[in-house]
Amino acid sequence: MKLPNSYYNTMSFFGSLIAGFCFILIVFLFVITSVFTDGGGYIGLITFIILPMIMIVGLLMIPLGMYLKTRREERSGKEETRWKVIDLNNKRTRNAMIIFVVGTFVILFASAIGSYNAFHYTESNEFCGTLCHSVMSPEYTAYQQSSHAHVKCVECHVGEGADWYVRSKLSGLYQVYSVTFNKYPKPIPTPIHNLRPARETCEKCHWPNKFYSNRIVNIRSYLADTFNTECNITLKMKTAASISTSGHSEGIHRHINPKVKIEYIATSEHRDTIPWVRYTDLETNEVTIYKDEYEPLPEEKMLSSETRTMDCMDCHNRPSHLFNSPTDYIDDGINKGTIPKELPYIKQIALQVLKVKFSTADSALNFINDSITKYYKEEHPEIYNKSKKLIDSAISGIQEEFGKNSFPQMNVYHTSYVNHIGHQESKGCFRCHSGTMVSETGKKIRNDCNLCHTILLQGVDTLIQSTFVNGALEFKHPVDIDEAWKEAACSECHSDLY
Ligand code: HEC
Ligand code: HEC
Ligand code: HEC
Ligand code: HEC
Ligand code: HEC
Ligand code: HEC
């Protein structure tokens, strides 16, 4: 088939070759992936993003080559007319025209399918969670074990509509750059300031007016003593109104009741120090400002600081990426049975070993194995000789739990991202409910132990104390620390016990 003279040049020729080759490859991969796999991972990246980009370059090379050739010929005086006459009586022009028109249709059609797939692909969990494997592996691993393992990353991270899509892909481009050149911070800093607002995400599935019943939480932990003594506590969390939904006694989710607004100023990056809180009752327009008695916010900082309105994220800041502390994940392993409770000292030694900061996951796994084996061999040879099997299964249990919660390559540990729900290992609710936040009239943000939950059952080993469902036990600290828990915040001891 004859084509216009200008087509016959090296650049256009290679352009056609590249474009044609890519096109065939894309169709081939597309068919293969639709038949055999879900099209995720690197294949998706190649089929929907990299190959189309190369194909476009190839296509652009065709007219560019033609243009350059015409210009060269003009300069050398062979051609004179600046603007071509498209003469369909000329066979070469006709051929070129047919190829152009048919080609355009085919490519438009294919790119409609392609960009639909590219859109889906760039919104998929594989794309967000596995492509930059080592960077996202902490979040992706934690996510897969969370209650939200079936909620797509983009449903929390990217808003709806084209502007959010473009915004997220633009910041994605920057991320590709920073990953390529190893310029990203480890760990990735939070709070994320451009996270899709909680109002738009969480509330799609859990909205504030929805009635939550009170929640029963059972916690079973183990002390770091000789026999890994079992410790139980059952809390009734007051997530709901006690009787009716009207009035002010609405419990924990009162903060997000549309009838009240709670704003605060935090003086630390992770929002864990809060010296100023404003509570507005939107029905009566009554405003109460609470200030920290001991460490008030300096006046000059008042104007320059961001005032944030409390939403879901101020308590549920780790809804899908919770990194547990060693004491919690060892408890998990014992509860699951992967770490044998009947192996004496195992919790104690595990906590000691896991205190070390590792540089890579492999060195951590080796260290866990070597130091636990060595400990039993040297300190407790009788156990070592009798229970070698238990020790081995404990080691693999600990390694497994470590792998799900600690990521040395990204510098991610439980301390990298504190969880604001609760008050044991970090200040959490006690950031405001510490008993030191006072209004001008002397009103305090309450902090009595039965405000947020009541204890229905508690006890160490077989010494269990329990009450009926509307009763409340006075807290008894599992190990004897006198009355220290009444004076000091729990996190003052618990944040660096292990
Ligand atoms: C249920 C909602 C939700 C889902 C689903 C979700 N995230 Fe998140 N993500 C969050 C919240 C909330 C934060 C913490 C924001 C903050 O503290 O400012 C966060 C933080 C992050 C961070 C910052 C580092 C960190 O640990 O705080 C990364 C990275 C991340 N998510 C990646 C992902 C990936 C990848 C997926 C899908 C595999 C995903 N997220 C799914 C809600 C979600
Ligand atoms: C697409 C729907 C969806 C979105 C969006 C969503 N969730 Fe959920 N959430 C769920 C489902 C489903 C469950 C599991 C319910 C169950 O286990 O009974 C759940 C469970 C929970 C739980 C209770 C389980 C637990 O781990 O304690 C909390 C708390 C929660 N979500 C908070 C949030 C927060 C905060 C956000 C916003 C960052 C959010 N959810 C966004 C669907 C969603
Ligand atoms: C003041 C802190 C706080 C705020 C703000 C908050 N929550 Fe909660 N929420 C809690 C606590 C505490 C629990 C009980 C958690 C537990 O026991 O593990 C809870 C429980 C839940 C549960 C589980 C209920 C159940 O019975 O399983 C869901 C779902 C939930 N919250 C969603 C939300 C959503 C959505 C928002 C924002 C609209 C929100 N929460 C705002 C503190 C808060
Ligand atoms: C930014 C500050 C702040 C944080 C953080 C905070 N609260 Fe509150 N909370 C308030 C204020 C202000 C009030 C209203 C004053 C009061 O009732 O003492 C309140 C009231 C309450 C009430 C009583 C609601 C009623 O009227 O029945 C409960 C229960 C409660 N909070 C639970 C929690 C829990 C659980 C957490 C942690 C997950 C938490 N709060 C974290 C500021 C905060
Ligand atoms: C402002 C609300 C609030 C107040 C006040 C409060 N707690 Fe809690 N408490 C929580 C929340 C939220 C959790 C987390 C529940 C969970 O893990 O799901 C919690 C968890 C606990 C746990 C279980 C800890 C664990 O993980 O093993 C104990 C024990 C406890 N609280 C005791 C107390 C005692 C004692 C007081 C009084 C000094 C108190 N709480 C005051 C909100 C509160
Ligand atoms: C003076 C320091 C101190 C204070 C304050 C303190 N604890 Fe403890 N707590 C300990 C020690 C030490 C242990 C034993 C740790 C072990 O054996 O693993 C412990 C163990 C526990 C355990 C059982 C093991 C576990 O980690 O789950 C719970 C539950 C607990 N404390 C809750 C609390 C709560 C809730 C508060 C605040 C009301 C609090 N503690 C305040 C020192 C303290």
Strand order of the largest sheet: 6-3-4-5-7
Helix fraction, binned, reads 40-55%
Amount of beta strand:
5-15%
Coarse shape: elongated
Number of continuous helical runs: 16
Q: What is the domain tally?
A: 4
Could you spell the SSE succession in H and E letters? HHHHHHHHEEEEEHEHHHHHEEEHH
Q: What are the distinct ligands in this entry?
A: heme C
State the major sheet: 5 strands, antiparallel
N→C terminal distance: 78 Å
Structural class: alpha+beta
Low-confidence segments, given as residue ranges, are none
DSSP strand count: 9
Gyration radius, in Å: 32 Å
Mean pLDDT: 87
Please tag this protein with its features.
498 residues; alpha+beta; 4 domains; five-stranded antiparallel β-sheet; 9 strands; elongated; binds heme C
Lay out the secondary structure.
Layout: H1 10-36, H2 41-75, H3 91-122, H4 125-130, H5 133-144, H6 153-157, H7 162-180, H8 202-205, E1 215-222, E2 230-237, E3 260-265, E4 276-281, E5 286-292, H9 299-304, E6 308-309, H10 326-336, H11 346-353, H12 361-379, H13 381-386, H14 388-405, E7 437-438, E8 453-460, E9 463-466, H15 484-487, H16 490-494
Antiparallel strand pairs: 1-2, 2-8, 3-4, 3-6, 4-5, 5-7, 8-9
Helix pairs in contact: 1-2, 2-3, 10-14, 12-14
Bound molecules: heme C (6 copies).
Task: Produce a short descriptive summary.
This protein is an alpha+beta fold and 498 residues long.
How would you characterize this protein structure?
This protein is an alpha+beta fold and about 500 residues long. It folds into four domains: about 5-120; about 125-195, no CATH class; about 215-320 and about 420-495, no CATH class; about 325-410, no CATH class. Helix content is about 45%, strand content about 10%. It is built from 16 helices and nine strands. It has helices spanning about 10-35, 40-75, 90-120, 125-130, 135-145, 155, 160-180, 200-205, 300-305, 325-335, 345-355, 360-380, 380-385, 390-405, 485, 490-495, and strands at about 215-220, 230-235, 260-265, 275-280, 285-290, 310, 435-440, 455-460, 465. Strands 6-3-4-5-7 form a five-stranded antiparallel beta sheet, with no helix packed on it. It is elongated, with a radius of gyration of 32 Å. The chain starts with 9 loop residues before the first helix and ends with a helix. The model has no long low-confidence stretch (mean pLDDT about 85). One heme C (HEC) binds near residues 424 and 451.
